[in-house]
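>> received
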Amino acid sequence: MAMKLIGRIISLPFGIVLLALLLLTLVWMQVNRTFLNPAYYKEELRKADIYNFVTNDLLTSALDEARELPPSEGMDENLLVTTGLETAQILDSVNDAIPPEWVQAQVEESLDEFGQYLVGERDTFTLTINPGERVEQVLDELQELIHEADAYELIYSQQIDPKLEELASSDLPLGIDVTGDQLKASFRKIVPPDWVETQVDNAIDEVTPYLAGKEDSFLVTVPLSDRVEAALEETKIILAQSDAYDIVYRQAVEPTLVESLGDFVDLPLGIRIAREEVLDALRRVAPPEWVQEQAEAIIDDSTPYIGGRVETFATEIDLTESKERAAVEISALVEARTNEVLARIPSCATIEEFFASGGAQPGSLALPRCVPPGTDPQQILAMLGIDLDDLVARSIVSNIPNTITFSEFQIRSALTQTGAVGTLEQIDHVRKLFKEGFTYDQNDLARDFAEMSDTTEADAAERIAEFRDWLENGFTYTEVDFQADLAEADDPETAQSFNDARNILKSAKTWGTFLLFFMVLLLLAIIGFLGGGSRWSMRVAWAGAFLMVTSAITFIVFLPVYSALASPRIEQARADMLADIRAGGGDFVGTAELAAGKGFDMAVSMADGFVGGIAFRSFLLTLLGLALFLGAFLGLSVRQGVSLPPREVAGGKGPR
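>> returned
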């Protein structure tokens, strides 16, 4: 009896060891089933519905908060507000372009591959993400959103219209005076939004196969020839509205007249007529309707040239009627100047003095020293034999051509003479654009990318090729790449330490549970032998009792105690975390709270599941210990009942 008591006392320290070992075993089993199991993370992400959460709840919050942001620089209002796109529209497009199911498949495949490698279940892994299969859908949805948002009208109102307003308020060529509204209306007729929309759609359709790796080149062509007539027609309207046709006329007609007229025309009697006076007379007699007609004829005739369809053009302007009307104006000017000269000749005292001075000799351009009293200028001119109208016709009007021709030669000569070679080159460039259209190919893309990234064109082309290869073939990452990255770490022992850890995990997953269970069973056997004495039933009962008690203690620690102590702290931690986010401020506080709350919920769920798993196994082991304890005593009682000796009774022998 004393030995049994001593054995039971000795077994108590083993019970403490059993409690620690059982706790370690249960924790290891739960770690093995959860954190070291790649499938566990997939299940937790599914349980949290994380993929729909990100593409719906989180994106909804981000969009709603983005609508509240102030407009970007150069914008009148928030871009999302201006587009008029509802959050539901954007969500639908995002989910159609990048479905949650596709994202889930990519994530779960990566978890399987890398997770199993990480814990040593496999020695190789291959991560492959193939975004190329979504490129066309993404661009299709982008086009659809652009159409629904009327993005082209948005570009006009937010980007182009302000520049047109600024242009209208500046000093325009030819003295054009036009309002911003007039310029905006004309621009929309020249480059209407539906035309721009068609060109953008065509460009996206052309570039998509190239980006997806299905084609090695692309060529975007924007035909501009059909916009020439519209542009020049609007030019006519603007010129008419700003009364600038006479300036166009001067630019076309007067340079030729300048070549025909000298700086001055010297007439008899010391009269001088300046070239500008002749030009001014021609301007005054030109009716506005006729000026507009000539200017529009120039615009009409130059349209094929500007559009690149012809290499030359010529507009003939008839000046015959203008010359006739101008001759009258010039004659009146000459007559007025002549009268001024003649009015300065003094009157003779007598007729004899007039004849004594030599008088006015016909054909002579010498003025007499005096004239008879009461003689008017016309009489003096008649005495001198001067016909002013004939003089004007011969000396001035005859130098004005009956017709002048305005062609591309005048344009190019004028630009060359003024040194505006850059403008001349721009005209050639514009003509080429109108003729061939605007073109853009993969070489232009590489050139522009090189300028943006401040690198060489060859390097830019290589980066674009890598990006296209990534879209076409996807992103592939293997254990070879991973080991190479580890080898490049600052600590040269990183790769070796990681591989050692993998080997330990691999061995632990293979043998850890078995060894721990073996040690638990060994301890239970020792405890049973120490406290159960010589009977097997008592040994089993004693071991079962220890298993029941230690499992029950573990159950109590991991369920009621955990719930009572951890829950308030968890909620406090959540409140503190959200308070820190609010205190930090920013543009997307609500979205950050939503994301943090979801992450916190997932962490709590994983912790609850982890603790719950340990508690559940503790409960099962408690029941097992109880069953062993009761089963052992029941078996003992049955055996004792069967082996009891019979008692003597009055009148004979037999069982009592």
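>> The first helix runs from residue 2 to 33.
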